[in-house]
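Appendix B, Record 12. Input sequence as logged:
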Amino acid sequence: MAVQFAILGAGILIIQSVCNSFGSDVIAAFTAALRIEQMATLPMISFGVALSAFVAQNFGAGNFSRIRFGVKKASLINIGLSLFMAFIMHFWGGFFVRIFVGSGNDNVVEIAHSYLFMSSIFYFFLAQIFIYRNALQGLGRAVIPLIASIGELLMRAFAAVYLAVKIGYFGVFYAGPIAWITASIVLAAGYYSTIKLFIFKAQQKLRECRHA
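Logged structural output:
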Protein backbone atom coordinates (compact mmCIF):
# COMPACT_ATOMS: atom_id res chain seq x y z
CA MET A 1 0.00 0.00 0.00
CA ALA A 2 2.91 2.35 0.74
CA VAL A 3 4.32 1.73 -2.75
CA GLN A 4 0.90 2.35 -4.29
CA PHE A 5 0.53 5.70 -2.54
CA ALA A 6 4.07 6.64 -3.56
CA ILE A 7 3.25 5.88 -7.20
CA LEU A 8 0.02 7.89 -7.04
CA GLY A 9 1.90 10.75 -5.40
CA ALA A 10 4.41 10.71 -8.25
CA GLY A 11 1.53 10.97 -10.72
CA ILE A 12 0.16 14.03 -8.93
CA LEU A 13 3.61 15.64 -9.01
CA ILE A 14 3.84 15.11 -12.78
CA ILE A 15 0.42 16.67 -13.31
CA GLN A 16 1.26 19.58 -11.02
CA SER A 17 4.53 20.27 -12.82
CA VAL A 18 2.76 20.40 -16.19
CA CYS A 19 -0.06 22.47 -14.72
CA ASN A 20 2.45 25.03 -13.41
CA SER A 21 3.39 25.93 -16.99
CA PHE A 22 -0.07 27.42 -17.62
CA GLY A 23 0.17 30.29 -15.18
CA SER A 24 -1.04 31.27 -11.72
CA ASP A 25 -4.79 31.14 -12.45
CA VAL A 26 -4.64 27.54 -13.64
CA ILE A 27 -2.42 26.56 -10.70
CA ALA A 28 -4.81 28.14 -8.19
CA ALA A 29 -7.86 26.61 -9.91
CA PHE A 30 -6.34 23.13 -10.12
CA THR A 31 -5.21 23.22 -6.48
CA ALA A 32 -8.62 24.36 -5.21
CA ALA A 33 -10.45 21.83 -7.38
CA LEU A 34 -8.30 18.96 -6.09
CA ARG A 35 -8.99 19.92 -2.47
CA ILE A 36 -12.73 19.97 -3.12
CA GLU A 37 -12.53 16.67 -4.99
CA GLN A 38 -10.69 15.06 -2.08
CA MET A 39 -13.52 16.05 0.27
CA ALA A 40 -16.15 14.85 -2.23
CA THR A 41 -14.56 11.42 -2.52
CA LEU A 42 -13.95 10.86 1.22
CA PRO A 43 -17.25 8.96 1.74
CA MET A 44 -16.37 6.61 -1.12
CA ILE A 45 -12.88 6.08 0.31
CA SER A 46 -14.39 5.26 3.72
CA PHE A 47 -16.60 2.52 2.31
CA GLY A 48 -13.58 1.05 0.53
CA VAL A 49 -11.52 0.96 3.73
CA ALA A 50 -14.40 -0.64 5.66
CA LEU A 51 -14.81 -3.21 2.89
CA SER A 52 -11.16 -4.26 3.16
CA ALA A 53 -11.63 -5.37 6.79
CA PHE A 54 -14.95 -7.04 5.94
CA VAL A 55 -13.41 -9.01 3.07
CA ALA A 56 -10.37 -10.03 5.13
CA GLN A 57 -12.55 -11.36 7.95
CA ASN A 58 -14.72 -13.43 5.63
CA PHE A 59 -11.72 -14.58 3.64
CA GLY A 60 -10.26 -16.00 6.83
CA ALA A 61 -13.56 -17.77 7.48
CA GLY A 62 -13.72 -19.06 3.90
CA ASN A 63 -17.11 -17.39 3.37
CA PHE A 64 -16.77 -16.31 -0.25
CA SER A 65 -20.49 -15.84 -0.87
CA ARG A 66 -20.53 -13.23 1.88
CA ILE A 67 -17.52 -11.52 0.30
CA ARG A 68 -19.30 -11.29 -3.03
CA PHE A 69 -22.44 -9.99 -1.32
CA GLY A 70 -20.46 -7.34 0.59
CA VAL A 71 -18.56 -6.19 -2.49
CA LYS A 72 -21.78 -5.93 -4.49
CA LYS A 73 -23.56 -3.89 -1.82
CA ALA A 74 -20.57 -1.61 -1.21
CA SER A 75 -20.24 -1.11 -4.96
CA LEU A 76 -23.89 -0.06 -5.25
CA ILE A 77 -23.49 2.37 -2.33
CA ASN A 78 -20.40 3.90 -3.90
CA ILE A 79 -22.13 4.22 -7.26
CA GLY A 80 -24.94 6.11 -5.52
CA LEU A 81 -22.42 8.34 -3.76
CA SER A 82 -20.55 9.00 -7.01
CA LEU A 83 -23.76 10.10 -8.73
CA PHE A 84 -24.73 12.30 -5.79
CA MET A 85 -21.30 13.95 -5.63
CA ALA A 86 -21.30 14.44 -9.41
CA PHE A 87 -24.65 16.22 -9.10
CA ILE A 88 -23.26 18.47 -6.36
CA MET A 89 -20.11 19.28 -8.35
CA HIS A 90 -22.07 20.05 -11.51
CA PHE A 91 -24.37 22.60 -9.94
CA TRP A 92 -22.51 23.89 -6.88
CA GLY A 93 -18.86 23.27 -7.69
CA GLY A 94 -18.28 26.95 -8.40
CA PHE A 95 -19.73 27.88 -5.01
CA PHE A 96 -17.28 25.60 -3.17
CA VAL A 97 -14.36 26.86 -5.26
CA ARG A 98 -15.21 30.45 -4.32
CA ILE A 99 -15.00 29.49 -0.65
CA PHE A 100 -11.39 28.46 -1.25
CA VAL A 101 -10.21 31.28 -3.52
CA GLY A 102 -12.44 34.14 -2.33
CA SER A 103 -14.26 36.76 -4.37
CA GLY A 104 -12.69 38.66 -7.23
CA ASN A 105 -11.15 35.53 -8.80
CA ASP A 106 -13.79 34.78 -11.40
CA ASN A 107 -11.34 33.28 -13.90
CA VAL A 108 -9.95 30.89 -11.27
CA VAL A 109 -13.46 29.89 -10.22
CA GLU A 110 -14.49 29.26 -13.84
CA ILE A 111 -11.44 27.09 -14.56
CA ALA A 112 -11.81 25.09 -11.33
CA HIS A 113 -15.53 24.59 -11.89
CA SER A 114 -14.81 23.39 -15.44
CA TYR A 115 -12.46 20.77 -14.00
CA LEU A 116 -14.99 19.62 -11.38
CA PHE A 117 -17.79 19.57 -13.96
CA MET A 118 -15.74 17.36 -16.27
CA SER A 119 -14.04 15.05 -13.72
CA SER A 120 -17.20 14.37 -11.71
CA ILE A 121 -18.69 12.61 -14.74
CA PHE A 122 -16.07 9.91 -14.14
CA TYR A 123 -16.56 9.53 -10.37
CA PHE A 124 -18.26 6.22 -11.13
CA PHE A 125 -14.89 4.73 -12.11
CA LEU A 126 -13.13 6.29 -9.12
CA ALA A 127 -15.76 4.82 -6.80
CA GLN A 128 -15.13 1.34 -8.20
CA ILE A 129 -11.38 1.74 -7.72
CA PHE A 130 -11.92 2.13 -3.96
CA ILE A 131 -14.12 -0.97 -3.89
CA TYR A 132 -12.06 -3.41 -5.94
CA ARG A 133 -8.66 -2.22 -4.71
CA ASN A 134 -9.63 -2.71 -1.07
CA ALA A 135 -11.40 -5.98 -1.80
CA LEU A 136 -8.24 -7.37 -3.39
CA GLN A 137 -6.14 -6.19 -0.48
CA GLY A 138 -8.57 -7.90 1.88
CA LEU A 139 -8.07 -11.07 -0.15
CA GLY A 140 -4.31 -10.73 0.32
CA ARG A 141 -3.71 -9.91 -3.35
CA ALA A 142 -1.60 -6.76 -3.36
CA VAL A 143 0.08 -7.27 -6.75
CA ILE A 144 -2.99 -6.43 -8.84
CA PRO A 145 -3.62 -3.11 -7.04
CA LEU A 146 0.08 -2.32 -7.51
CA ILE A 147 -0.20 -3.00 -11.26
CA ALA A 148 -3.30 -0.79 -11.38
CA SER A 149 -1.40 1.99 -9.61
CA ILE A 150 1.41 1.76 -12.16
CA GLY A 151 -1.21 1.95 -14.92
CA GLU A 152 -2.64 5.06 -13.27
CA LEU A 153 0.80 6.65 -13.16
CA LEU A 154 1.47 5.93 -16.84
CA MET A 155 -1.93 7.24 -17.94
CA ARG A 156 -1.59 10.38 -15.82
CA ALA A 157 1.85 11.08 -17.25
CA PHE A 158 0.65 10.45 -20.82
CA ALA A 159 -2.41 12.65 -20.48
CA ALA A 160 -0.62 15.42 -18.61
CA VAL A 161 2.23 15.63 -21.09
CA TYR A 162 0.65 14.66 -24.43
CA LEU A 163 -2.85 16.10 -24.09
CA ALA A 164 -1.57 19.31 -22.53
CA VAL A 165 0.36 19.97 -25.74
CA LYS A 166 -2.70 19.23 -27.87
CA ILE A 167 -5.53 20.96 -26.02
CA GLY A 168 -3.89 23.05 -23.29
CA TYR A 169 -4.64 22.85 -19.59
CA PHE A 170 -7.84 20.87 -20.26
CA GLY A 171 -5.51 18.04 -21.22
CA VAL A 172 -4.14 18.08 -17.68
CA PHE A 173 -7.69 17.92 -16.34
CA TYR A 174 -8.36 14.74 -18.32
CA ALA A 175 -5.37 12.98 -16.75
CA GLY A 176 -7.27 11.92 -13.63
CA PRO A 177 -10.35 10.46 -15.37
CA ILE A 178 -8.22 8.58 -17.90
CA ALA A 179 -6.20 7.09 -15.04
CA TRP A 180 -9.38 6.16 -13.14
CA ILE A 181 -10.84 4.32 -16.11
CA THR A 182 -7.61 2.37 -16.65
CA ALA A 183 -7.22 1.41 -12.99
CA SER A 184 -10.88 0.47 -12.50
CA ILE A 185 -10.78 -1.92 -15.46
CA VAL A 186 -7.60 -3.61 -14.19
CA LEU A 187 -8.93 -3.87 -10.62
CA ALA A 188 -12.38 -5.14 -11.62
CA ALA A 189 -10.86 -7.82 -13.84
CA GLY A 190 -8.42 -8.73 -11.06
CA TYR A 191 -11.13 -9.00 -8.43
CA TYR A 192 -13.55 -11.14 -10.44
CA SER A 193 -10.82 -13.50 -11.65
CA THR A 194 -9.43 -13.81 -8.11
CA ILE A 195 -12.74 -14.48 -6.40
CA LYS A 196 -13.67 -17.06 -9.06
CA LEU A 197 -10.33 -18.80 -8.52
CA PHE A 198 -10.83 -18.90 -4.75
CA ILE A 199 -14.38 -20.26 -5.10
CA PHE A 200 -13.17 -22.92 -7.53
CA LYS A 201 -10.41 -24.00 -5.14
CA ALA A 202 -12.83 -24.08 -2.21
CA GLN A 203 -15.30 -26.23 -4.16
CA GLN A 204 -12.52 -28.54 -5.31
CA LYS A 205 -11.29 -28.98 -1.73
CA LEU A 206 -14.86 -29.70 -0.58
CA ARG A 207 -15.24 -32.40 -3.23
CA GLU A 208 -11.93 -33.95 -2.20
CA CYS A 209 -13.06 -34.03 1.45
CA ARG A 210 -16.33 -35.72 0.48
CA HIS A 211 -14.53 -38.39 -1.54
CA ALA A 212 -12.09 -38.97 1.29
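Residues 2-207 form one domain.
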